[in-house]
């Protein structure tokens, strides 16, 4: 059962940021008792309320939020209320008989975790109980003021059958355990830190506990406990190490120490997103905990470490200082993504991490920002908050935080963070409070910077450079302009990192008038605050090539007229590794789009040999590590290319991309073979940086080589597949073998299935590898949809088949007869009744329909309309579909 909408007369109404009002009551203390059963759970609560006289009149009733609760009893200050004292609708409990302005309310409700397929609130996963309360899931557990500015301390008693649920966990410290009648037992937990209800957690189950400790900077010993299913006991080491490294890093980098004496992480297999930072008791998608070298790839290991770090970092940025209301979500998410990115950069490679992040940002966030769901990082309105856990709030939010750092410097940023915690520890605050702390700690005016929170869409940054040879000056003119979908655009405060690359490939000095170019810095952060500004650099003794927006210092679309030669020159020489990579991307993008236009007209395709040579040079540049080389040869993806066009013809884009990949594969065959050979680590598997870079390059080379489907390359992939002692190599080889139909494909898939059918996370890979492969069409999709290992009830499985097909298999999804769209819409309709949050993620694949040419656009739109027609559509999917069609 979900909140139903279109069968009621009125459509769901949005909430607006401008309407914020403080709560009518405060809650200081909460006590909860859970009686967990196979057929229903009883939740009793005792809550201490105090009227907020600034907001509500004395005598006005208390209104609490709830969903799918069966109310058994309501009492105030120990007196049970009769029917006239309270009333409940599907979503509100109103209590009228209040003895005064502060009182204790007790309620008892019955809920049904055993049939909760929405995975929000209290639910069951693999027979265990767990919770997910962010954003508004706590109200599915008990009547409450379920909003983040209501912060309280919690005492929680959990009672359940002792044999089935030997572990009973909640937030904070375990203070009592006792036996109960009938083979049951109880555990009592107390969380001394005030928290909003979205950080509440409860877990009950029969789990293996992997233990460790961490000694903090003040010498306290913290117990670390990682809970997993018994069969996964040997996949916890990396998660534990990741947690210890995160704790250390946050002390060293931000001076932040963990507060409780216990930190628990529980891995569950049915989870709507990645993980959840509940105070002292994180609940994780098992995908981001479990890792063993034969089941998880290098990328999976890195993702586990990053997500563990992210949730850990939330303890300060999110939990100790939380959000006043959900419009402020980026306050904790943008900041925490920024922090985890810095952590990963420190632990792996700053350059590689930056390129991976920007690649993701452009593919997902830029697409969202130019589509129907575009919103500022601090949205102005929402219908269903869960729909706003977006790459805009997270990833663009992190870019905005990164701009503070670029403007203020690392030390200035740290000063701002220190002041933020000094002012707001224990509070629920806003993005403006964060900005004020950054400004005040540094004596800077950051008023204009607020526009990054107010405006949606991706601004364009236009750069025009002019070299004056007689005067030896170089003038750079920067102009910012409005995104198409932001009619009220005003100029942002934008840091533009800049350099000039001289004819030898070395950076030149950037001297303002009167400065000595030989002593001037070679990189400057230019602060663009007007629509247009110019800067002139002196003593520029030869014609330079400009390198603009180094490190991707602002989340914008850079527009600059540059010749293919200049781009190739930067691709070969820019000292800024991001811009070096990006010059290649700009070069490829121009080539691919021109080829796609030719393909759309049915014209023959040819590739400029200079492009091939540029890639060859990179591949053979021994100053680059394997990861950078593999990034340098990856072409802009379908999403990035289609954003550059209106009326996209997907077939022509795919044809152009295939053509370039196949040409590079043929022309660079010798180089790729040599690179693969040199890069592949020899001997037993190792996880050091060098080996990880080596595998990344070797597997990218194999991937590119296999594009032509030649027998010797297939044999090479078969050999790697058979011999692999780690998932990175095994998965990469399988990824090559599935691209071309034949016995090699079926045999490899069968072997992989036989070996791993008992391991859910590896089976997700088996589904995903097929779903993104070239021969995978709608018929193949339907076969896997009916496979005995597929279920719509597990979000990871849905993402690996439906999600990958809809968002990564452009051939199959954009089939010209519309069958791909129909198949995905069928899945959305089915999911909507089971799990609206997952349904509303899948349906977004249809969002960019306006960007496509006919017949694709009409076919996509028709499926959106079909979904909108469904009776009882969840408000999650309703919001997405109506904005897409609106
Ligand atoms: N804060 C959670 C996300 C909750 C999503 C709610 N639909 C995970 C994170 O960002 O760390
Ligand atoms: Zn987060």
* Low-pLDDT segments, ≥5 res: 1-8
Oligomeric assembly: single chain
Q: Compute the average pLDDT.
A: 97
Q: In the CATH hierarchy, what is the architecture of the largest domain at level 2?
A: Sandwich
Helix content: 25-40%
* Proportion of strand residues: 15-25%
What are the distinct ligands in this entry?
(3S)-3,7-diaminoheptanoic acid, zinc ion
Strand order of the largest sheet: 6-5-9-3-2-12-15-14
For the record, what is the CATH homologous superfamily label of the largest domain? tricorn interacting facor f3 domain
Keywords: Aminopeptidase, Hydrolase, Metal-binding, Metalloprotease, Protease, Zinc
Pfam families: DUF3458, DUF3458_C, Peptidase_M1, Peptidase_M1_N
Cofactor: Zn(2+)
Function: Aminopeptidase N is involved in the degradation of intracellular peptides generated by protein breakdown during normal growth as well as in response to nutrient starvation.
């Amino acid at each position: 059962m979900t909140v139903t909408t279109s069968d009621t007369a009125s459509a769901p109404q949005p909430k607006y940021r401008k309407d914020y009002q403080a709560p009518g009551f405060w809650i200081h203390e909460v006590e909860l008792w859970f009686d967990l059963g196979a057929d229903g759970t009883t939740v009793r609560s005792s809550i201490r309320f105090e009227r907020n006289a600034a907001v509500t009149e004395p005598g006005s009733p208390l209104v609490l939020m709830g969903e799918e609760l069966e109310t058994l009893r309501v009492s105030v200050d120990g007196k049970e209320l009769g029917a006239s004292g309270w009333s409940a609708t599907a979503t509100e409990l109103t209590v009228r008989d209040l003895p005064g302005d502060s009182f204790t309310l007790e309620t008892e409700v019955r809920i049904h975790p055993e049939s909760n397929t929405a995975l929000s609130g209290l639910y069951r996963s693999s027979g265990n109980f767990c919770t997910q309360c962010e954003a508004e899931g706590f109200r599915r557990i008990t009547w409450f003021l379920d909003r983040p500015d209501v912060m309280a301390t919690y005492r929680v008693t959990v009672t359940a059958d002792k044999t089935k649920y030997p572990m009973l966990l909640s937030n904070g410290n375990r203070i009592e355990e006792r036996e109960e009648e009938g083979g049951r037992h109880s555990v009592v937990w107390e969380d001394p830190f005030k928290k909003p209800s979205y950080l509440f957690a409860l877990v009950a189950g029969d789990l293996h506990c992997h233990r460790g400790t961490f000694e903090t900077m003040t010498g306290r010993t913290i117990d670390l406990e990682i809970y997993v299913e018994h069969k996964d006991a040997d996949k916890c080491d990396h998660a534990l190490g990741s947690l210890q490294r995160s704790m250390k890093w946050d002390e060293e980098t931000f001076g932040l120490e963990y507060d409780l004496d216990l930190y628990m992480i529980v891995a569950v297999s049915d989870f709507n997103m990645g993980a959840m930072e509940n105070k002292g008791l994180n609940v994780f998608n098992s995908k981001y905990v479990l890792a063993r070298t034969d089941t998880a790839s290098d990328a999976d290991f890195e993702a586990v470490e990053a997500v563990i770090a992210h949730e850990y970092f939330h303890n300060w940025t999110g939990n100790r200082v939380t959000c006043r209301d959900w419009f402020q979500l980026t306050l904790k998410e943008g900041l925490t993504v920024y922090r985890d990115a810095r952590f990963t950069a420190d632990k792996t490679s700053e350059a590689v991490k930056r390129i991976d992040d920007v690649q993701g940002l452009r593919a997902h966030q830029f697409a969202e920002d130019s589509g129907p769901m575009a919103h500022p990082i601090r949205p102005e309105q929402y219908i269903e908050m869960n729909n706003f856990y977006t790459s805009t709030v997270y990833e663009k939010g992190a870019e905005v935080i990164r701009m503070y750092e670029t403007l203020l410097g690392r030390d200035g940023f740290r000063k701002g963070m220190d002041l933020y915690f000094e002012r707001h520890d224990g509070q629920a605050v806003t993005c403006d409070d964060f900005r004020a702390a950054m400004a005040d700690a540094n004596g800077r005016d950051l008023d204009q910077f607020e526009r990054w929170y107010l405006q949606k869409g991706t601004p364009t940054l236009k750069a025009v450079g002019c070299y004056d040879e007689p005067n030896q000056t170089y003038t750079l003119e920067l102009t910012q302009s409005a995104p198409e979908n932001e009619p009220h655009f005003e100029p942002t405060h934008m840091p533009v990192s800049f350099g000039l690359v001289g004819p030898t490939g070395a950076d030149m000095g950037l001297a303002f008038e009167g400065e000595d170019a030989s002593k001037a810095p070679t990189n400057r952060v230019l602060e663009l605050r007007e629509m247009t500004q110019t800067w002139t650099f002196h003593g520029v003794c030869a014609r330079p090539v400009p390198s603009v927006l180094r490190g991707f210092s602002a989340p914008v679309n850079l527009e600059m007229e540059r010749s293919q030669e200049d781009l190739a020159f930067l691709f070969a020489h820019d000292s800024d590794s991001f811009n070096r990579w990006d010059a290649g991307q700009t070069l490829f993008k121009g080539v691919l789009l021109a080829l796609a236009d030719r393909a759309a007209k049915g014209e023959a395709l040819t590739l400029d040999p200079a492009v091939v040579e540029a890639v060859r040079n990179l591949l053979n540049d021994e100053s680059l590590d394997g990861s950078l080389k593999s990034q340098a040869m990856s072409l802009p993806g379908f999403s990035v290319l289609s954003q550059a066009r209106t009326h996209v013809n997907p077939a022509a884009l795919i044809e152009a991309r295939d053509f370039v990949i196949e040409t590079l594969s043929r022309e660079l065959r010798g180089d790729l073979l040599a690179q693969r050979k040199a890069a592949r680590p020899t001997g037993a598997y190792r996880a050091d940086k060098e080996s990880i870079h080596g595998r990344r390059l070797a597997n990218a080379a194999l991937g590119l080589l296999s594009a032509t489907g030649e027998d010797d390359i297939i044999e090479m992939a078969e050999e790697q597949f058979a011999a692999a002692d780690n998932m990175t190599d095994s998965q990469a080889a399988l990824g090559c073998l599935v691209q071309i139909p034949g016995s090699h494909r079926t045999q490899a898939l069968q072997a992989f299935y036989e070996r791993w059918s008992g391991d859910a996370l590896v089976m997700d890979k088996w589904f995903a590898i097929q779903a993104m492969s070239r021969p995978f069409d709608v018929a193949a999709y339907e076969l896997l949809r009916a496979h005995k290992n597929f279920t719509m009830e597990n979000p990871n499985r849905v993402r690996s088949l439906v999600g990958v097909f809809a968002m990564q298999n452009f051939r199959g999804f954009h089939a010209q007869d519309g069958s791909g769209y129909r198949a995905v819409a069928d899945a959305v309709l089915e999911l909507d009744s089971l799990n609206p949050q997952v349904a509303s993620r899948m349906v977004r694949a249809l969002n960019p329909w306006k960007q496509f040419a006919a017949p694709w656009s009409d076919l996509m739109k028709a499926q959106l309309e079909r979904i909108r027609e469904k009776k009882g559509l969840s408000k999650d999917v309703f919001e997405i579909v109506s904005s897409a069609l609106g």
